[in-house]
Amino acid sequence: MSVKLFAASDKEIRILANLHPLNWGLYMVARVWQGITLPENADAYENFLKIEFLPSIEKKNIDGYRKFQLLRFDKGQEVEFITIMWFDSLDKIRQFAGDDYEKAVVHPKAQQLLLRYDARSKHFELEHELNY
Known about the structure:
Layout: H1 10-17, E1 29-37, H2 39-59, E2 65-74, E3 79-87, H3 90-97, H4 108-113, E4 116-117, E5 122-125
């Protein structure tokens, strides 16, 4: 069963989220962000994420933070990375990113390694998870 939430405000989203079937242990919001680097910086950036950034996030014990995923696509002259951070709700993302929760949180070391990156993160509600 898939239930779609169509809400005009964050308050309505919070109210409806309590009724959302996926909130019964599975409701999550994905924070999606993209950065692009040159091939010669790609491994250093990936290592920074795995060795420094991710452990620092996990040490903070952010309430409602669930997991981190990293996608990499070598495009020849550039390497594209997409990060996906999973949280319980938009309120939990605000605890991580602040009131302007769509604003990207980019570590200064990452800024040095990246050619360009999204200034804003996108947020998606998990509608359905297939387990095979």
